[in-house]
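Teaching assistant's notes for section 4

Start the section by putting this record on the projector. Ask students to predict, before seeing the second block, whether TGM1 glutamyltransferase will look compact or extended. Collect guesses on the board.
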Amino acid sequence: PQTEDTVTMTVSYSEYQPHVGDQDALKLTVAVAVQETGQVLAKELLVRLHTPELTLTLLGPAVVGQEVPVQVVFQNPLPEPLTGASLRMEGAGISCPKPVSL
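Reveal the predicted structure now:
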């Protein structure tokens, strides 16, 4: 009576990866059945997954009418390699952006 207990559970990437898709979120539902009363209690939690950031760095001076090299850095946080990824840069004045396969 009047006590509290903490239970820790781990959800591995391999368990949730097939269900994430483009949403970058997990919906967790926890349910508990109380034997003494027959009650069932439930709680839901929406967890937003943190997506890695892209870092853009100009590698030279940005001069009107001239090309400027841009370095893009992305770190894959997943325990498996990414395949079929591509990078596309868009912006005002950039004509015909072309995807770069990675």
